[in-house]
Specification:
Blueprint: H1 9-30, H2 36-46, H3 61-78
Helix pairs in contact: 1-2
Length: 85
């Protein structure tokens, strides 16, 4: 999922939630688990469901290494400074 601008935590949560709902609908349809009309009803019901998202910092060194590498690569290719916040 491409991100072209800096997002707030709320905006990122919203983007991920929308993506999750779209992926859920796609999987339900592709595996023919429920009829399309039921998928539409399910998604309309999910519009009002509030997700309680909790964010945490990863301490997995492998993931941290990948993120650090991508950050440096992005900054180098876009001539930008790394924001450590």
């Amino acid at each position: 999922m491409p991100v072209t601008t800096r997002l707030t935590i709320e905006e990122l949560t919203n983007v991920l939630t929308i993506g999750w709902k779209a992926m859920l609908a796609d999987k339900l349809e592709s595996y023919q688990l429920i009829p399309r009309s039921e998928i539409a009803l399910l998604l309309s019901g999910l519009l009002y469901l509030m997700f309680n998202v909790e964010w945490g910092k990863s301490i997995d060194l492998s993931i941290s290494g990948h993120i650090s590498y991508l950050s440096k690569y992005y900054c180098k290719t876009n001539n930008k400074q790394i924001d450590q916040t």
